[in-house]
């Protein structure tokens, strides 16, 4: 109604939303809720009581599964405290999820995985604005864990039995100021180079889109310098 002008009134919007299957409203920044007009739509015959019941049923089914209507003693969620946050069990599960969700697009000459037994004496370079900047590793709407639980690529790779060197090249994802000599110097002396690039919330978030799909600033140049 407000942005796309698909509808003209709150009543019309409520009816269109329910007909489309929507059953929950997020009316951020609006003085009145659209779904407060559902009783009027029902009275006018724009929607049926059965449709209203069909839309409400999944909401209460979910709340029941969450135990919101149970006595607190019966609800397992009510016993959770801060000890569950960043617990070893949850951090191990997070690590497992990360490992299993990686997508490997290419593996030229079977370069990966890097095996610890093959690394002693090797020189490993990690470069790029995402190599050692904890702030850029989290996406939009992400929780911010305690610093001791944040493993940047540099911190993780330094746990391997290799001689690890580091060069950011540029300090933030927009990469407007790029130090080519810094990257070339570190990458040129390494046996293995890990390049860490991306966008981050400085470049794109909800309601902040990129103009194109290219890497920001000088990041592509950084990549080319690191692998040449």
UniProtKB/TrEMBL annotation:
* InterPro entries per the UniProt record, alphabetical: BXL, GH, Glyco_hydro_3_C, Glyco_hydro_3_C_sf, Glyco_hydro_3_N_sf
Sorted alphabetically, which keywords does the UniProt record give? Glycosidase, Hydrolase
Single biological process term from Gene Ontology: xylan catabolic process
- Iron: is it a keyword of this entry? no
- Does the UniProt entry include the keyword Cytoplasm? no
Extract the PANTHER family matched here: FIBRONECTIN TYPE III-LIKE DOMAIN-CONTAINING PROTEIN, SUGAR HYDROLASE-RELATED
Query: What is the protein name given in its UniProt record?
Result: XYL2 arabinofuranosidase
